[in-house]
Amino acid sequence: MKRVFNFGAGPAMLPLEVMQQAQAEFLNYQNLGASVIEISHRSGEFDDIIKRCDALLTELAGIPDNYKILYVHGGAQMQFSAVPLNLINRKAANKASFVLTGNWAVKASKEAARYGMSINLASSENRNFSYIPDYDLGLLDPDSSYLHITSNNTLFGTRWHSFPETGEVPLVADMTSEFLSRKLDINQFGLIFAGLQKNLGPAGLALVIIREDLLEYALPATPGLLNYQVYAEQHSLANTTNTFAIYLMSLVLQWLKDQGGVALMEKQNEAKAKLIYDAIDDSDFYYGTADAAHRSAMNVTFNLHNEDLLGEFVEQAEAADLYALKGHRAVGGARASIYNAMPRAGCEALVEFMSDFERRMG
Ligand code: PMP
């Protein structure tokens, strides 16, 4: 069987053990004589799966009792609409504030402006989003219904190392590309969302963790299937959900628990990222594209000083089973996405390849 080290940003590499388990029980789930994708979302078996997800998420992320866990259709970008539809009406001014740290925050801000007013508190666009900008919390309009940030910027390879204290204004974080990769204090956030397709499972669903008191502000025109209250009241089963994605997530979460949980994963992730950043920093051939102080542990963005060699770099890497290293077109260069499921051996293989490529081509 051929398996590569897959550095793609998402859908991304998942733990092999998880896919093997899914494969082994795919045709006959728990001896039902039917696949998990052939049983009702209202069956006892699926009820066990979704409750297992709730319990594992609560344990792994330390989710307090006053938060709800929702599994929402449509992936992460759908939350750019769902969040303002559900929250922008929290204050009569209908305003939402944003810190623009990349394309995803820009998109979210533009989408919120369809339902109210978007205020951009700070931006790092002047240097192509290569850093997390300073922001003056004194300028955060207290009439903002919430402040939206992207905690890890998948394209640009930056992350918020610590989070703003926003007081009465709920902090909303798009954690699509890092949720469960590092320890968090959930109490700092009013709402966290994450598309599944990086650290959690397959694409198409988003996990939403929302403080209960924020469930009551949906605009009247909010579609039922984007209304968080509907999801909260009906355990995310107002209609037929993506049962397979939730099942697979339950396996990924169990895997993460078996690995030792988020604290241990964070340590491993930091060490994996350091391997690659050190290789970049120790060389005159490669350079990092994100400011060192704001580097992501999930998406390592870099380039070659001689950019003419980039195509060759990506091609030769692929021939060496190091897959999908091409950077996003908004940044150029190369990007190694190293989510929880990327083993240290994958990062070591990349570093070795980089050094070998430099020796041959430098
Ligand atoms: N936010 C972030 C931080 C992302 O990385 C992505 C996808 N890479 C999205 C939003 C959009 O996700 P989706 O394709 O599920 O809408």
Task: Give a concise summary.
By secondary structure, this protein is α/β, with parallel strands linked by helices. It has two domains: 16-259, Type I PLP-dependent aspartate aminotransferase-like (Major domain) (Aspartate Aminotransferase, domain 2); 261-361, Alpha-Beta Complex (Aspartate Aminotransferase, domain 1). The protein contains nine helices and 14 strands.
Describe this structure in words.
With 362 residues, the chain is α/β, with parallel strands linked by helices. The protein has two domains: 16-259, 3-Layer(aba) Sandwich (Aspartate Aminotransferase, domain 2), CATH 3.40.640.10; 261-361, Aspartate Aminotransferase, domain 1. 34% of the residues lie in helices and 18% in strands. The strands form four sheets. The chain has a seven-stranded mixed β-sheet, with helices on both faces. A three-stranded antiparallel β-sheet has the order 11-12-14, covered by helices on one side. The protein has a two-stranded parallel sheet with strand order 1-13. Strand 3, helix 4 (103-112) and strand 4 (117-123) form a beta-alpha-beta unit. Helix 7 runs parallel beside helix 9. The chain is globular, with a radius of gyration of 21 Å. The protein starts with a strand and ends with a helix.
Write the layout of secondary structure elements.
Layout: E1 5-6, H1 16-24, H2 44-61, E2 67-73, H3 75-87, E3 95-100, H4 103-112, E4 117-123, E5 144-150, E6 152-153, E7 158-159, E8 171-174, E9 191-195, E10 205-211, H5 228-233, H6 243-259, H7 261-281, E11 286-288, E12 299-304, H8 310-319, E13 322-323, E14 334-337, H9 344-361
Parallel strand pairs: 1-13, 3-4, 3-5, 5-8, 8-9
Antiparallel strand pairs: 2-10, 6-7, 9-10, 11-12, 12-14
Helix pairs in contact: 1-6, 2-6, 3-4, 6-7, 7-9
The structure holds 4'-deoxy-4'-aminopyridoxal-5'-phosphate (PMP).
4'-deoxy-4'-aminopyridoxal-5'-phosphate is lined by residues 9-10, 75-77, 104, 150, 154, 174, 176-177, 195, 203.
